[in-house]
Design a protein that fits this description.
The chain contains two helices and ten strands, in the order βαβαββββββββ. By secondary structure, it is mainly beta.
Length: about 130
């Protein structure tokens, strides 16, 4: 997974000057590219109360479409980012600790993932909101 260094600093700010809420922005369909939006959009939803986030995504298998479900436990919020632990995570940092993930909202239509052992400005490639319809 390639890292992208974010040039913007601080929290993402909405049109009215407030910090964008991940709970408001993240639900919906997302893709790493426009092709992903057409073939394999990832659908994000939160369980009631916001303590669990789920991502449902079609798998690339021949035959009937299967859905992959990845679930996270939300462990905190810092402005425009949600800190989470992925169910079944087995990747570890250099110190041997299980990694956790931040879903970082960049604006109304983009977010990225940051691993707990990456720098504060490091992030995955951006995901974009899929067009409605």
């Amino acid at each position: 997974m390639a890292l992208v260094i974010l040039l913007a600093s601080g929290a993402a700010v909405g049109e009215r000057g407030g910090v964008l809420s991940p709970y408001d922005i993240l639900p919906g369909q997302w893709g790493w590219s426009s092709a992903d939006c057409k073939r394999m959009p990832a659908k994000i939803s939160f369980a009631k109360g916001g303590k669990r986030m789920h991502i449902r995504q079609p798998t690339e298998l021949e035959g009937p479409i299967e859905l992959k479900l990845t679930s996270y436990t939300v462990t905190g919020r810092n402005g425009n980012a949600l800190a989470m632990r992925m169910d079944g995570e087995d990747r570890r940092d250099d110190a041997g600790n299980l990694v956790s993930w931040d879903a970082v909202v960049l604006d109304q239509d983009t977010y990225c993932w940051r691993r707990s052992d990456w720098g504060p400005r490091d992030c995955t490639k951006r995901l974009t909101r899929c067009p409605a319809g």
